[in-house]
Specification:
Elements lengths: L1 E7 L2 E10 L4 H14 L2 E12 L1 H16 L3 E5 L3 H10 L6 E2 L1
Parallel strand pairs: 2-3, 3-4, 4-5
Antiparallel strand pairs: 1-2
């Protein structure tokens, strides 16, 4: 997995490329939490992400809880259909903001 981060004003966009699994999800979680130390708005771009495991879903849940506790926002963009189906089946579409 490769993560790139871009800051624009009060928003950080984190682009995820590759697979978010047990081995790589700590990197995503760390990027999200570090982002929330700098700003209150995080955008996660999943355009080049091909897989998210349950460990990756946990990182997203921790990110959303952090956003809620900081009165901030986290949203997912460019979510591929295969990932969207995982989010739907797991019920995460009711927890996360997805555009």
């Amino acid at each position: 997995m490769q993560i790139t981060e871009q800051r624009e004003n009060d928003t950080i966009t984190i682009s995820i490329e590759g697979r978010v699994d047990t081995n790589t999800s700590p990197q995503l979680q760390e990027a999200i939490l570090k982002g929330f130390q700098k700003v209150n708005q995080i955008v996660l771009d999943f355009e080049k992400c091909v897989y998210v495991s349950s460990a990756g879903l946990r990182a997203l849940l921790i990110g959303q809880k952090t956003a809620n506790s900081k009165k901030g926002a986290m949203k997912l963009v460019h979510v591929p259909p295969i990932l969207m189906s995982v989010l739907e089946v797991s019920g995460f579409v009711n927890i996360l903001t997805i555009q």
